[in-house]
Amino acid sequence: MDQDRNCPRRRRRRRHRHRSGEDYISGLPDELLRSILLRLGSARAAARTSVLSRRWRHVSAKLPELVFGNGAPTAPASSFLSVVNGALAAYTATNLETLHIIVPTDGDSSGFNGIPARRVAPWLRFAEERVAGELVLLMPPLRRPPLHEPWPEPEVDWEEYVLELPACERAETIVLRLHHHWWLRLPPAGGVFTALTSLTILFATTKGSEITALVSERCPCLRNLRLCLTLVYASDVSILSDSLRSLSYSVTETRRLEVVTPTLENLFVRTRIDEARFFAPKLERVVWRAAAYNPQRHRFDGVGRRIRLLDLGESFTVTPLMQEFDEVDELILGISTPRVCTVDISGILKKKRILVFFS
After folding, report:
1. Where does the F-box/LRR-repeat protein 15/At3g58940/PEG3-like LRR domain start and stop, copy by copy (predicted)?
2. Spatial separation of the C-alpha atoms in residues 26 and 290, rounded to whole Å
3. For 268, which of 154, 183, 286, 287 could close a Cys bridge (C-beta 3.0–4.6 Å)?
4. Are strands 162-164 and 173-177 parallel, antiparallel or unpaired?
């Protein structure tokens, strides 16, 4: 305090800074400003800081991470969409490490008249050009009507619910939680997800041929794949990959599934499949939540006779699948006591651990 009083030059600089509209925050280096904005954990909050300093607006437009929403109920969806659109339009950097868009639950998201896919399409096109890391897009779950009321019959242009998935060549992880009535398509011009190693797509409708093309032709480095989709009509799906390590498959209306993956280690099946063929020499874990296993229609070719985990859940026709393997390190079964169930385990006695759950 005394030093300031005795230093006229320092007092003059302070008066000049006040008159010129400058502030101490504007003098901070960009790296420090980025660190402060990233700690906010929200792109929306970062954008609001521009009122503190003119330079903050410049810095917030080049952040390596953009996070919108946390899933909690908030302002109307239209307001949230405007914030996201504005922030993406103002973004100037060429590389974005993380883009998270978690659309909040809102009254406008109920029924089929919720947010149309066309409102989300520009976000994916932005990700195609900028994201060089992780892309997460989570739509809110649709609110079901009361049990005594049917789903509303929408009067909409169904073209609004077609969502094209562009090839994000530099994205390494993509997580999409959409809506069952959205039709997910690949662009006709092609494109390859060159760097993609992890892909999750939940709750959308598509064609079997689209899944085949996406996984077998356009994701050469994919290691983890999780699908929970509905096919437009019953059809075949082929997953041919030299890099895939983990597959979680729940695609309704799959007529025949072919999986040829020399590196696959983990397999999770949770949907009825009329026919299936799995070629996975390195398979270590199998979780079977599908309908009855039929060795005439469901085949494990080229799979070793010893695996680490076989989880069959509450299935009552599991003996044929258990007999596919000579040794299982861990076997998990679920038995519902009200029903009479007989399971022949005479051929699977070489188990190090057997877990049986009663319900």
Report:
1. 122-273
2. 60
3. 287
4. unpaired
List CB contacts of 246: < 8 A, sequence separation 6 or more: 223, 224, 225, 264, 265, 266, 268
Q: Tell me which residues of the chain have a pLDDT lower than 50.
A: 1, 13-14, 16-19, 108-113, 145, 151-152, 154, 340, 349
Instruction: Please give the structure tokens belonging to residue 109.
Output: 């998201």
Token digits of residue 334: 């679920």
Instruction: From 177, 186, 183, 120, select the one nearest 157 (Cα to Cα).
Output: 183
How is residue 39 written in tokens? 């700690």
Residue 110, pLDDT score: 44
Do residues 202 and 182 lie in contact, with contact meaning Cβ atoms separated by under 8 Å? no
Q: Alpha-carbon distance 272 to 123, whole Å?
A: 34
SS (H, E, C) 170-195: CCCEEEEECCCCCEEECCCCCCCCCC
- Cβ atoms of 315 and 335 within 8 Å: the answer is no
Backbone angles phi, psi at 302, to 5 degrees: 70, 15
Written as six digits, the tokens of 187 are 């662009």
Cα-Cα-Cα-Cα torsion 65, 71, 77, 79, nearest 10 degrees, comes to -50
Q: What is the 3-state secondary structure (H, E, C) of 306-322?
A: EEEEEECCCCCCCHHHH
| Those residues with Cβ within 8 angstroms of residue 195's Cβ, 6 or more apart along the chain or in another chain | 132, 169, 170, 171, 172, 221
- State phi, psi for 235 to the nearest 5 degrees: -160, 175
Cα–Cα distance, 211 to 217 (Å, whole number): 10
